[in-house]
# Entry
Amino acid sequence: MSQGNIAVTDQAETPDPGKLAVCTVMEVVNRISGKWAIGILLEATRGPVRFTELERSVSGISRRMLTLTLRNLERDGLLERTVYPTVPPRVEYEATGMARELYESLSALVGWAERHREAIALARDSYDGRG
# Structure
């Protein structure tokens, strides 16, 4: 299986070790609000979860997108990956303290979307009917 094009960063050069790379607020928001990140973080906050469990619970995600999203969330310090030396190797992902702190906000956002989904659908129908 090819390992091409799996980088989790677009940086062309390695940052100076004496300086910390500054992550902008929009970079953080974009990462967390990505199509798959919320579902993965909600699952990983419940406790250690394996790749296949995530694949089943995050509806519609491909194996490749799950892999890339997991790597990015791990890179950002939101997931911790643990590899157990078994045959075959067992890998689990768990939310870090930062991600657990974020959990309340994500849960509130999901709850808000569930409470207002009908109103949003009606507003869309009304807007689309104007043209």
